Automatic annotation (TrEMBL):
It comes from the Bacteria. It comes from Ferriphaselus amnicola. Residues 80-456 form the Circularly permuted ATP-grasp type domain. InterPro entries: ATP-dep_Glu-Cys_Ligase-2, CP_ATPgrasp_2, UCP005522. SUPFAM superfamilies: Glutathione synthetase ATP-binding domain-like. It holds the Pfam family CP_ATPgrasp_2. This is Circularly permuted ATP-grasp type 2 domain-containing protein.
């Protein structure tokens, strides 16, 4: 195995497995020792076994293209990302702190708006928000929680510092792949799990069920929980069906539900109508209820917002939670944490420039060749400019977009995000990656042990999204000294 040789070129980035002397980091020593016993042929055999397992398990994702919707096998790399438990516990505390503050913030925006009155959060940011839903004003969901499931993207910079890259509070996806990645690794590398104390992740479906069950308006009864999916052509349909199956919940489409004259949501079944207590929706706000949002939507349920406002059904994530899922709002999260919790942020934001402010916009326009520019409400890596890798024409185009709609853009320095060994064409090579842990909140807070590590499979690429050529790894949180 070539990890300890010059063939594994650790560039200037922080490597998750090896230090600058190509020695394994303490938490990664057992994995390093194991990999060192495998030759190229054995690594190739494990790679083939991974691919065969993915096909047998039917783990897919969908790419939308001009040629139509294409189902592809999940791109998985068998070399895991390793982190020490002591480091993870600090990160976990920061994730919980962040979601707690964001939910207080969302609830405040839809009610008293104290943070605006006190001059901590600018009114013009809310005015320009594409995800603020006036239909939600005056509502306080159970426990004051709007975002029950959050996928927070983390990156590590060259000096080893972990930063929050963004908060995904609308319909975050990927957790099913985190769970399946672990199952694949247990099949392919069972000997490592016998000798290394790798903390488990398989309690997530139970934790998700308990988070959702706490929202049921019918306390004391077994809640009826439904996962609301747009259908089989959605890119995350595998996840919708997987989570419903794992929780013992119903998988439904909008046409399977109806809101009665009593403003209660019912599910159609062969035995008649059955009351639904909690909906885990995997549909964007705009399509949830044609009576309130997009009247042309055939994905949602007419009257759903009436039922939710009346409190006869719980919805996770709540309509309107996306007001905090905005890359401009992101820049204010440190102040939001201090305002609501009177605490210093445990996790740092990436330094950010808001184009809505003249001086910051001037700086961004003058330094487009050095910055990453992001639109406020896009996801999946779409609509952004990676300045150092863009052409002069692309940068000029983006400058016009910024001038036309400054509120919609923010910029950050281009981070040299960390790498980890990845099996490419039979050899181990460094590839950039991020990490998406999942945090749950209803009556209590929970964060996954690790998360979904996404990796850019193309050399030098910083784009980790599977829809744009990225893959994933299992994430191992191990006891210190393992």
């Amino acid at each position: 195995m070539e990890l300890a040789s010059s063939e594994y070129a650790c560039n200037t980035a922080y490597d998750e497995l090896l230090n600058s002397d190509l020695k394994p980091r303490p938490a990664a020593q057992p994995l390093f020792d194991y990999l060192d016993t495998l030759d190229k042929n054995e690594l190739a055999a494990r790679r083939q076994a991974v691919d065969a397992t993915i096909m047998a398990m039917g783990i897919t994702f969908t790419i939308y293209s001009e040629a139509g919707n294409i189902d592809r096998a999940w791109p998985f790399d068998p070399i895991p990302r390793v982190m020490a438990r002591s480091e993870w516990e600090q990160i976990q505390s920061g994730l919980k702190q962040r979601l707690l503050a964001l939910n207080l913030f969302i609830n405040d925006l839809y009610n008293e708006q104290r943070i605006i009155k006190d001059g901590v959060f600018p009114a013009e940011v809310l005015t320009g928000s594409g995800n603020f839903r006036p239909q939600c004003v005056g509502v306080t969901p159970p426990f004051g929680v709007w975002a029950h499931i959050c996928g927070t993207d983390l990156v590590r910079d060259r000096d080893g510092t972990v930063y929050v890259l963004e908060d995904n509070l609308r319909v975050p996806s990927g957790v099913s792949y985190m769970l399946e990645n672990r199952q694949i690794m247990k099949r392919i590398f069972p000997e490592v799990f016998r000798t290394t104390n790798i903390l488990p992740v398989d309690d997530y479906p139970t934790q998700l069920y308990q988070t959702l069950a706490a929202l049921s308006p019918r306390t004391g009864e077994q809640p009826v929980i439904a996962v609301l999916t747009p259908g089989i052509y959605n890119s995350a349909y595998f996840e919708h069906s997987y989570l419903a199956q794992q929780m013992g919940a119903y998988l439904v489409e909008g046409s399977d539900l109806v809101v009665g004259s009593d403003d209660v949501v019912y599910m159609k079944s062969i035995d008649g109508l059955q009351q639904v207590d909690v909906i885990y929706r995997r549909i964007d706000d705009a399509f949830l209820d044609p009576e309130v949002f997009n009247p042309d939507s055939v994905l949602g349920v007419p009257g759903l917002m009436r039922a939710w406002r009346k409190g006869t059904v719980g919805i996770a994530n709540a309509p309107g939670a996306g007001v905090a899922d905005d890359k401009v709002v992101y820049a204010f999260v440190p102040q939001i944490i201090r305002y609501y919790l009177d605490e210093s942020p445990i996790l740092a934001n990436v330094p950010s420039y808001l184009c809505m402010y003249d001086d910051q916009r001037d700086y961004v326009l003058a330094n487009l060749d050095k910055l990453v520019v992001k639109p406020a409400n896009e996801s999946g890596g779409y609509g952004m400019l990676i300045g150092p890798r863009a052409t002069p024409e692309e940068r000029a185009q983006f400058a016009e977009l910024i001038r036309a709609n400054p509120r919609n853009y923010m910029a950050q320095p281009t981070l040299d995000i960390s790498t980890a060994p990845t099996l490419i064409d039979g050899k181990l090579a460094p590839r950039h990656l991020d990490l998406r842990p999942f945090v749950l909140q209803s009556d209590k807070l929970y964060a996954t042990t690790g998360g979904l590590t996404r990796v850019a499979l193309r050399q030098g690429s910083l784009v980790v999204n599977s829809s744009q050529g990225g893959g994933s790894k299992d994430t191992w949180i191990v006891e210190d000294g393992e």
